């Protein structure tokens, strides 16, 4: 059983002892800390917060605890109930709210839940803001409202439809073009809210939908992280149904993966590559992804005459870099599409519409599209170090060893070689260095990772 408190929120497993798991007490304390921070930060008399949740089994319980804690602080709540992470992000500014909370543990299994915190723009809090909320949580420095000053609750279940309308109104989305293509698509909604939102969007675009695990019961039929080893059912069904492709989302619908028409994975890393390919073909500009994402985005960006830049790992860091560079699209290699014309958050509905436009205009099959992109392979390994070792010192030594290469130290150490790269990041909670590599073959990526692990061991003297 686990409880993880970080600057991006609190997540943990349901049940067990307070302080060790995400119990009702922990949910109330963290919600109270967020509400208290909002009152201090905004200095407004009447505050409003948008709440939405995915369909996981503990969602309704956590939702009620969080909603009524905020009401107890004198904060008004707009309750979206079953929703998606990007839908809540869109709702916050539309409601002129002061913040938002998404109740989801994203791709984690059913025993997990979490509180993800948003600011008044519907964007994730930065590190300093998150640290202040953790401090308030630990101190339990809460002051609840008197009876005449309690907050109110307004229920609004229309926001998935509003979100879909927002997607349909994007300048690069033309519903008629997509309708004429007469696509057939299989959707795996992992029995969460993606099973509501994605089929509804597709049908608005004239797509024939085959639903798989789209009943939002919260009983996940497989591990909800959209990786190849978890997705045999949809891969088989795409072929059986002779569908154009398949769509897979995680429980809160901010990660998007495609299945090619031949039943093979399109590759989560290539979700962003494909969407960027379409956007860049229409709009000149720059792109951003994190340091651990595929080089293929850089290649496609430069093909269109744009500039690519890398940010530290984490959505808030990608968004910050996108704003600084005025990027027209960005995201993360886990299938997260951030399209500023819509909003600064990973959004599978936006990604789906952009991908449909790309396919409708290009023609051909999804497998052919994937084959047209630069082919890269990743290796993700880690090395366990002895407690007490100077991990920062080890990373510094590795950076010095490769000082003649293209080096970034904004988030661990990334070494860009001409034909491949390696990214070394330390864990914040244990003596581990994570080693991510990418190369033009799996053998080369694995070999590079093993070589770097050997060099780290030599530097560390182990």
Automatic annotation (TrEMBL):
SUPFAM superfamilies: Phosphoglucomutase, C-terminal domain, Phosphoglucomutase, first 3 domains. One of its GO terms (molecular function) is magnesium ion binding. The keyword Cell inner membrane does not apply. One of its GO terms (cellular component) is cytosol. Residues 395-453 form the Alpha-D-phosphohexomutase C-terminal domain. It is an enzyme of class 5 (isomerase). Its EC number is 5.4.2.10. Keywords: Isomerase, Magnesium, Metal-binding, Phosphoprotein. Its cofactor is Mg(2+). Residues 8-142, 171-263, 270-374 form the Alpha-D-phosphohexomutase alpha/beta/alpha domain. GO terms for biological process: carbohydrate metabolic process; peptidoglycan biosynthetic process; UDP-N-acetylglucosamine biosynthetic process. Pfam families: PGM_PMM_I, PGM_PMM_II, PGM_PMM_III, PGM_PMM_IV. Coiled coil: none annotated. InterPro entries: A-D-PHexomutase_a/b/a-I (IPR005844), A-D-PHexomutase_a/b/a-I/II/III (IPR016055), A-D-PHexomutase_a/b/a-II (IPR005845), A-D-PHexomutase_a/b/a-III (IPR005846), A-D-PHexomutase_C (IPR005843), A-D-PHexomutase_C_sf (IPR036900), A-D-PHexomutase_CS (IPR016066), Alpha-D-phosphohexomutase_SF (IPR005841). It comes from the Bacteria. PROSITE patterns: PGM_PMM. The keyword Metal-binding applies. NCBIfam families: Arch_GlmM. Belongs to the phosphohexose mutase family. This is Phosphoglucosamine mutase. The lineage of its organism: Bacteria, Pseudomonadati, Bacteroidota, Flavobacteriia, Flavobacteriales. The gene is glmM.
């Amino acid at each position: 059983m686990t409880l993880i408190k970080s600057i991006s929120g609190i997540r943990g497993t349901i049940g067990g002892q307070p302080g060790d798991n995400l119990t009702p007490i922990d949910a109330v304390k963290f919600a109270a800390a967020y509400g208290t921070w909002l009152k201090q930060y905004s200095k407004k008399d009447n505050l409003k917060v948008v709440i939405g949740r995915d369909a996981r089994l503990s969602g309704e319980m956590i939702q009620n605890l969080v909603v009524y804690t905020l009401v107890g602080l004198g904060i008004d709540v707009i309750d979206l109930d079953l929703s998606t992470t990007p839908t809540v992000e869109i709702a916050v500014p539309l409601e002129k709210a002061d913040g938002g909370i998404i109740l989801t543990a994203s791709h984690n299994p059913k025993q997990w839940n979490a509180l993800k915190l948003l600011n008044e723009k519907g964007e994730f809090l930065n590190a300093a803001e998150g640290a202040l909320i953790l401090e308030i949580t630990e101190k339990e420095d809460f002051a609840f409202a008197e009876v005449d000053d309690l907050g109110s609750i307004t229920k609004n279940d229309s926001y998935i439809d509003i979100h879909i309308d927002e997607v349909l109104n994007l300048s690069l989305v033309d519903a008629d073009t997509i309708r004429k293509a007469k696509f057939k698509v299989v959707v795996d909604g992992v029995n969460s809210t993606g099973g509501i939102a994605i089929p509804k969007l597709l049908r608005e675009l004239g797509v024939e939908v085959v639903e798989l695990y789209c009943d939002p019961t919260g009983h996940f039929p497989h591990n909800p992280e959209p990786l190849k080893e978890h997705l045999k059912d949809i891969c088989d069904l795409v072929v059986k149904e002779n569908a154009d492709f398949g769509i897979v989302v995680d429980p809160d619908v901010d990660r998007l993966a495609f299945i090619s028409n031949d039943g093979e994975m399109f590759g989560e890393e290539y979700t962003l590559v494909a969407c960027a390919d379409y956007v860049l073909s229409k709009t000149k500009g720059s792109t951003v992804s994190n340091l651990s994402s595929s080089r293929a985005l850089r290649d496609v960006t430069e093909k269109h005459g744009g500039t690519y830049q890398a940010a530290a790992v984490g959505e808030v860091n990608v968004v910050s870099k996108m704003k600084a560079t005025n990027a027209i699209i960005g995201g993360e290699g886990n299938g997260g599409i951030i399209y500023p014309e819509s909003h600064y958050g990973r959004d599978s509905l936006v990604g789906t519409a952009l991908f449909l436009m790309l396919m409708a205009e290009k023609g051909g099959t999804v497998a052919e599209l994937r084959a047209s992109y630069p082919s890269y392979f990743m290796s993700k390994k880690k090395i366990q170090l002895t407690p007490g070792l100077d991990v920062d010192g080890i990373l510094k030594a590795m950076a010095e060893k490769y000082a003649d290469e293209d080096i970034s130290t904004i988030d661990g150490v990334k070494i860009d070689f001409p034909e491949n790269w390696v990214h070394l990041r330390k864990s914040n909670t244990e003596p581990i260095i994570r080693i991510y590599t990418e190369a033009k073959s799996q053998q080369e990526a694995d070999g590079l990772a093993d070589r770097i692990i050997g060099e780290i061991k030599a530097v560390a003297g182990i």
